[in-house]
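Morning run. Coffee first, then this:
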Amino acid sequence: MKLLRSNCGRAKSSSLWIIGTIIVILIVGVGLYLWTRSSSQGVSIAASVSQSPVVVGMPFSVKVDLGDTSDSDLENVQLSVSLPSSLVMADGSNMSIINQSLGNISKGSINEQTFQLVPLPSVNSSQTIAITASYSIGSLSAKFQTTSNLNVNVQNLPLTLELTSPSTTFSGEEMESVAAYGWNPASMNMSSSTTLPPLSIQFIYPGTFSLSSSIPSASAANESTWQINPLDPSDPGKIVVRGKVSLPDQTQFNTTANITANILGKNYVILSSSAQTTVNASPLSLDIMVNNSTSTVAQPGETLDYTLNYKNNTQVAFQDIVIQANVSGGMLDWNTLQSSSANFDPNTNTLTWDPENTPGLGSFAPGSSGSVSFNVSLDKSYPINQLNDKDFSASVNATITSPTVPYLITADQTVNTASSITKVGGLVSVQAAGYFRDAVSGLVNSGPWPPQNGTPTEYTIHWDLTNYSTDLNNVQVEAQLPPGVTFTGQSSSNTSSTLQYSSSTNEMIWNVGYLPATSGILTPAPEGIFQISATPQSSDVGQYMNLLGPTSLSAQDSFTNLPLTAGSDAITTLLPSDKTVASGDGIVK
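And here it is:
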């Protein structure tokens, strides 16, 4: 009984001690929190901008007042100003965080800091500057922080821009685009004499655009750029551009005008305007067929038969027609190029048909159709010498011209173009090989050799891949295990993918996935290795036993977007790849 009372007393004393400790910790924690809170409440950050809103490209100042309203001096004060990406230092320094050491601040005083910034174009008009002040108080080693955010309203320059272009045109016809621009400084309470950053207008044309003239003249250094600074708000300006495009019928293209501002040495797009134009069916149509198709995918060694069809779509006879076809491609065998009538220039790889070698082009009657042709063969092998030798193709860019211009078309000649790109499909191979003695694989095969009826023997199977000229996706290799053959669970690969056994189909499967071009040619061949165990049956005695069914590979050619397949023969105990195996050794005993 006394022992029980003694234990109860100890337990009660221990509980009181724990509760007391917890109460002390809570009191100290709450006191520290309240003291820290009161210490930070005695410090204020007041930030403001010199104007609102601020305008893109126009410098402005940010003033930060750090005040000490506490009962203690602030020591080792550090000020940090974090800028969003669209606000930069006016001096051009590349700082996203401005750090200032302010030393000590006496109680009751205010420290003022000013920063000069420039806003850049941004999709967001509201930008936030984060301001943090860190400091210590008296002899305390603890650091305190006060934070504040300043929201800056950024507006674009009060500019206007409108681009007009014809909705339709003919290939080779002169078209006119007009960029009308202006500005309204009063909308931003800006003076018309405000100094703006250097402004310019840049035209972006389709690649075949040829500039004929412009008012005013373009910059000497760049025929697509016009300086427009300074601007007169009472006299909106415009830039008139005239030029021609050579594009196939029904092609839609955009012409774009951008107002750019040079801010701290870099050009930024301030405003943009675009107009779409469609190329009308040409009075003189032209199209290209390759092997009687417009979507041919060729293979090495194949002959490409090109037919250029043309037609007069008007009621006017076209005179002195000239057709030219520029041919290019890294796999073309130029020695095989043939054409019944065209002149060929080997310096430019261009074939030319004209009235001299093709009399029907001298005068081409209304509604008439015609064609010219040539053929050229591809090399029988891919010219792979470096890693980027891939995605081969044959291209033809053709033009048809005539000095005859139908009524109401503004051009000095009738022009039409056509182009053709024939992709060369990829090639992949898989080589399946079996081994009994295979120290290189790191797997040791056991069992009798020559194979014995009713006794298992282990073998290793190698799958080696070679991919030639195109990147492949969804590469998968598979083969079925015949009766009497099982997977031991041992496999390896020099790729990131692993080999798997499917018990439902009794297949070995290797999901390689992505396989880059030139794998196995300029880089080591991707290889998958797995071990099998084969137990011969009485029906196998006196012949070679089947170890693996035919191997099949499937893949998607990422260049042509067509499927690719490859395969390798079945493997038996003949094991021709194992050089340690003599002829006849693999016959089951």
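The chain has a mean pLDDT of 88. Good start to the day.
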